[in-house]
Amino acid sequence: EFPRVFYTRNVKEDGSIYFGPYTHVKAVRKVLRSIRKIFPLRSCKGKRLPQRACMDYYIKRCAGPCIGAISKEKYQELVKGVIEFLSGKIDQVEEEIEKRMWEAAEKEEFEEAARLRDQLLALRKITQSQKVVLPEKKDIDILGFSLYQDTACAVVFQIRRGKLTGKEDFILKGKGEEKDFIERFLISYYRNIFFIPPLILIPSMPENKSLLENYLSQKQDKKVEIRVPERGIYRKLMEMACENAERILDEEGIKVRRRIPMSVLELQHILNLPSPPRRIEGFDVSNLHGKYAVGSCVVFVDGKPKKSEYRRFKIKEVEGINDPAMIREIVKRRIRRIIEERKEKPDMILIDGGRTQLSAALSVIKDMEIPAFGLAKRLEQLYLPDGRIISIPQTSPALKLLQRIRNEAHRFAITYHRKLRERITSSLDLIPGIGKKKKLMLLRFFGSEERIRKASKEELMRVKGIGEKLAAKIYRFYHE
Length: 480
Prior knowledge:
Layout: H1 25-38, H2 55-58, H3 72-86, H4 90-106, H5 110-127, E1 131-132, E2 140-148, E3 151-160, E4 163-173, H6 178-190, E5 199-201, H7 209-220, E6 225-227, H8 232-258, H9 262-271, E7 279-288, E8 291-301, E9 304-305, E10 311-314, H10 323-340, E11 348-352, H11 355-365, E12 372-375, E13 381-383, E14 389-391, H12 397-424, H13 436-446, H14 449-454, H15 457-460, H16 468-479
Helix pairs in contact: 4-5, 9-12, 10-11
């Protein structure tokens, strides 16, 4: 009834409308901030609305459906505006808001007219920053491309109503000619795109042009044409996009040549690996006598932590104290995610542990051609897949890198383990009569334990299942 807009890394067939993909998280967050200034949709999670307004309502970042401050019909108008905005139909959105504003003024609904006026001003402020590149108000995607050996860069200029509204770039790996890369990219890029423009311009035409056009046309339910521009403004924009792609690829090539550190190269030599292990993923588990069991995965790229790609796991399949089984579970879940989401697989895996932990991990990745090793804390010995144990000199940069990865995986697992224990063992657990269900209802209603602590008896009684006696007991617990 009252949908929200948010960014996600996962696309599911759950009835939601998805826009993207977007490669830059900062840009996505900026777009979301802009949207919330113009269209104050709710930001609270979950399908059920909270029972009172949050701060967003008071700073005009939410229309307040939770307290009935906006009707379903008016809220759906906001949702429609967001969909059109993200589809690039900004002019239509502007025209519609202005039309509704004057209609509200004529009906002397001045509060509604003022709200629409504020929406219109915020929208115009955003559109003023967009550059006009075409004299006609057309919707076009322009694909620039550059290829060197097995690496390519694709740049997409998104032109909506004649204005350049967005630019995305992607680094691609694979084999084949430019047209082969382009064909694969078009299928991948538009698979989860909500709005496909009627015209897509590309630098070279794939052999399956008609099949691609049919696929995109069926997906959009409108005719989509793919064309190679020969002259004029379209050709100039295409060349600009290709120059962008070439520059990005050149920069990527410079980085590739310069950024492999000595520790990674030394590791390749010591472990006799076919190529430098530029991407290493480290795994560890943590538990308290088998309880609150968690796992961690840390990612190091070229010897440096890439914290945005760290992942943590609650152990689901293992009960009791069984570290090897827990290692097997988290490595299996990580590999499954890599396969399902077509993510970059690691050049090497490092397990915090000895022979049994390493064997558990190897049982999962045996068919994936990913080398894995175990680093035991005692004596800092490195366990190899073939059963051998080697010692690396203490002064070696390669050993110091392995120790950093192992220690970071341990730190990340321990931190999550502590947070989980603190979250589960809150002071609410100490109050007689408060079970898991009532605890959850109290936290959902008030939002935090601190607000429960400050609540009066009357406010506590507003929570379903909390009667006068229990409310008094909770109040006394925090105030006596």
